[in-house]
Design brief:
8 helices, single chain
């Protein structure tokens, strides 16, 4: 299966090279593209030096625009699987074979920290948010999800095509799932280990967290109003 790893990155010079080297170590046959989202540091050069292809955006467009750029690239170059990974080292390259194997049978595979017991431990507040969104999406779609905010995901050809046409703009993980379920995609989760951010600082502040919860909740509820349960694949 022709596989592409998409890494959206904004000012991640401290971690991006190690992430790329780890991918090459554990999945040497995959291609890696870094979407350099208008970084002001050495993210671009560090990624190139580590052996990745880099697409540099002229200014910061956010995670949604960066990921759609990656999926457009995957479609144009006829990849069978496109896997999203974070640039901060949270996602482990050694878990890639799990996602790739499952992606041969599903449209989207989510690397989940909670579908089974793992060593990952989040803050109390973040865990509450994860439980809330997982319950909300499960209620709307009729399918149980445990980790709707995970950004470690493997997409097959159908999802690559859909995401190349549309991808939610900011804080997109939850909205993107609703979108796929409305399109009749087959989605599953697989247990994966993750680590906390190794370098840098998260862009999600307490104030942004409140905005995120309100915005995504309203978006999900609006989607629920027009959601067609006949397309849900059990």
């Amino acid at each position: 299966m022709k596989t592409l790893i998409i890494i959206p990155a904004y000012n991640e010079e401290g971690s991006i090279a190690a992430v790329i080297r780890d991918i090459h170590k554990h999945a040497p046959s995959v291609d890696v593209i870094v979407i350099n989202d208008g970084s002001s540091d050495r993210t671009e050069q560090c990624a190139i030096n580590a052996g990745a292809r880099v697409l540099t955006l002229p200014y910061n467009v956010g995670i949604g625009g960066g990921m759609q750029t990656g999926y457009m690239y995957a479609k144009q170059h006829n990849y069978d699987i496109a896997i999203q990974m974070d640039a901060d080292g949270q996602h482990l390259a050694e878990e890639l074979p799990k996602l790739i194997a499952k992606a041969e049978h599903y449209d989207l595979v989510i690397g989940s920290r909670y579908v089974e017991s793992t060593s990952y431990r989040s803050s109390h507040l973040r865990r509450i948010g994860m439980i809330f969104f997982s319950g909300l999406v499960s209620m709307v779609t009729g399918q149980r999800f445990t980790d709707t905010t995970s950004g470690f995901r493997a997409a097959g050809p159908k999802v690559i095509d859909l995401y190349s046409q549309y991808y939610p703009i900011d804080y997109p993980e939850v909205e993107a799932l609703i979108y796929l379920k409305r399109k009749g995609c087959r989605i599953t989760e697989v247990a994966t280990e993750m680590r906390k951010r190794e370098t840098g600082k998260s862009s999600i502040t307490p104030l942004k967290s409140i905005y995120y919860m309100v915005k995504v909740t309203l978006s999900v509820l609006m989607s629920a109003m027009r959601y067609d349960r006949t397309v849900v694949s059990k």
